Amino acid sequence: MKRKAFTMVELMVAILITAVITTLSVMTFSAVSESWTSATEYIDKHQRSDYALNQVVNGLKSMYYPHNGEQDAKYGFILMDNGSGEEPDDSDVIEWAKTGHAIVGGLDATADTVHRVQVMVLEEGNDDYRDPIEVTGLYARLCPDPALQPSSDKDGGDTDYSFGNSDMYQPILVVDGIVGMNCRVMESPEEGKEARNDKELFKDEWSKSNSVPYKVELTFWVKDPEAKSYRTNTAPMMRIVRIPIYEQAQDGASLPEDEAKGKGKGGTRRRGGSSR
What we know:
- With 276 residues, this protein is α+β, with helices and mostly antiparallel strands.
- It has one domain (41-148, 160-258).
- Helix content is 27%, strand content 21%.
- It is built from five helices and eight strands, in the order H-E-E-E-E-E-E-H-H-E-E-H-H.
- The protein has helices spanning 8-61, 189-194, 198-201, 246-249, 256-262, and strands at residues 78-80, 93-98, 115-122, 137-144, 172-176, 178-186, 215-223, 234-242.
- The strands form two sheets. A five-stranded antiparallel sheet has the order 1-2-3-4-5, covered by helices on one side. Strands 6-7-8 form a three-stranded antiparallel sheet.
């Protein structure tokens, strides 16, 4: 006798198999979609962080130091070492004098003059400044050339125009997603030659605030938006910068090549700035 239909058991097995396949398909699609979104966000964050790191590197390359034959602490490099730099609380703070558009941007009038810049990582909710920090990321503070700052107020007061005045210069967000920054320095070329291994090339301390180091090593820590158990929560990005005005900052004198170029032209050209 011929069978004209499926039995109830066969239908239930078919429905069960279909349900399992559908469930697995949905779970696979969801996992792939989530991974794609996470990877896209992570790549975007890395690209923006890499751009910000390049801005800081360019800012370090455009350091300014006057040609007055003396060392001047107003134009020196400052490193405040707070730890390893993997979290906002143990991130370093760096400060130096520069010219140009790096970090500042081309629309800011400050870019056309000598100015000091302070770079740091701040955490969401930080209330050390006039306005609370709304998002964790890399921040910069800008102040004009110390030579342009008034010596006293119009009313006879003595205002602090340095970065020590937290109400004077509000931090500006450079890029979010950076949760830590570590800075190390190589004091001189001789220090690099004497080092026995890579760990000795750079140091966490810099005490010569009236000068600039030979090289600077910067490490940014970028937050993983979807940290998995087999990943670390942050990923490092590192650059090493050779400071062009290192030799000049040792005594405040102009470099030999600058003197040669300025000879017979009525003066010496300022590195990183306009002619005097």
